[in-house]
Amino acid sequence: MEGDLDPEYGLQILGGKVANGMIHVVEAGNALLWNTMTNFRFAFNNNKWGSGGAELLTSELKKLCGLSLKDERPLTG
Questions:
Q1: What is the mean pLDDT of residues 10-30?
Q2: Has this prediction a pTM greater than 0.70?
Q3: Residues 74, 77: Cα–Cα separation, whole Å
Q4: Helix (H) or strand (E) holding 59
Q5: How far apart are CA 14 and CA 36, in angstroms?
Q6: How far apart are CA 31 and CA 34, in angstroms?
């Protein structure tokens, strides 16, 4: 997967999800941060690893950027 090109956008794929650490570089009131926090209560699943972290952050970033959510890959674990 790493190093492959995204078929839809032609961009290099570096990983499947956005790292949670991204939250530390956005300003307070940022739309990504706000949307992620607002939707945490709907997305979090105690039985699904990453559901309230990288998976949620990635889907909120895709929504904000107008990217397709259809390519979401399920997390294992």
A1: 69
A2: no
A3: 10
A4: helix 54-65
A5: 22
A6: 5
Tally of CB atoms within 10 A around 20:
14
SS3 54: helix
Place of tokens 């970033």: 61
Domain count, the chain: 1
Can you give the residue range of the structural domain that contains 60? 20-65
Under the banding of pLDDT at 50, 70 and 90, the label for residue 77 is very low
Q: Which two tokens stand for residue 70?
A: 């259809």
Closest among 52, 51, 49, 53 to 76, alpha carbons compared = 49
Phi then psi for residue 5, to 5 deg, are: -100, 135
Domain contains 4? no
